[in-house]
Amino acid sequence: MIHFRGAIVEDPCNIARTAENVAFSCYRDGVTKTSVYSLEQAEKGIKGNNAIAVVKMDYINPQKTLAVLRVDYQ
């Protein structure tokens, strides 16, 4: 049995990927904060937007054409 108390007060972050970058946009405290990171930074694991989340990308094939982007919200 799971009980939930509280409220969701902010939307989750939006993530957009291009061939070279990952854009990470979060609505926090009435303002949208956007950070853009290179794919190399995402591979290393980055802490984005004032510690709101940690972003990490792992390739799942040797050709580096398929990847999993993991976002851990703080």
- H/E topology pattern: EEEHEEE
User: Could you tell me the radius of gyration in angstroms?
Assistant: 14 Å
Strand arrangement across the biggest beta sheet: 1-2-3
Quaternary structure state of the chains depicted: single chain
State the helix count: 1
Largest sheet: 3 strands, antiparallel
Q: What percent of the residues sit in helical stretches (DSSP H or I)? A: under 10%
- How many domains? The number is 1
Short description:
It is built from 1 helix and 6 strands, in the order βββαβββ. It is mostly beta strands.
Descriptive notes:
The protein is mainly beta and 74 residues long. The chain has one domain. It is 8% helix and 50% strand. It contains 1 helix and 6 strands; from the N terminus they run βββαβββ. It has one helix spanning 39-44; strands at 14-17, 21-28, 31-38, 46-48, 53-59, 67-73. The strands form 2 sheets. Strands 1-2-3 form a 3-stranded antiparallel β-sheet. The chain has a 3-stranded antiparallel β-sheet with strand order 4-5-6. The longest helix is centred in the middle third of the chain and has 6 residues, at 39-44. It is globular.
Name some characteristics of this structure.
mainly beta; single chain; 50% strand; 3-stranded antiparallel β-sheet
Blueprint of the fold:
Layout: E1 14-17, E2 21-28, E3 31-38, H1 39-44, E4 46-48, E5 53-59, E6 67-73
Antiparallel strand pairs: 1-2, 2-3, 4-5, 5-6
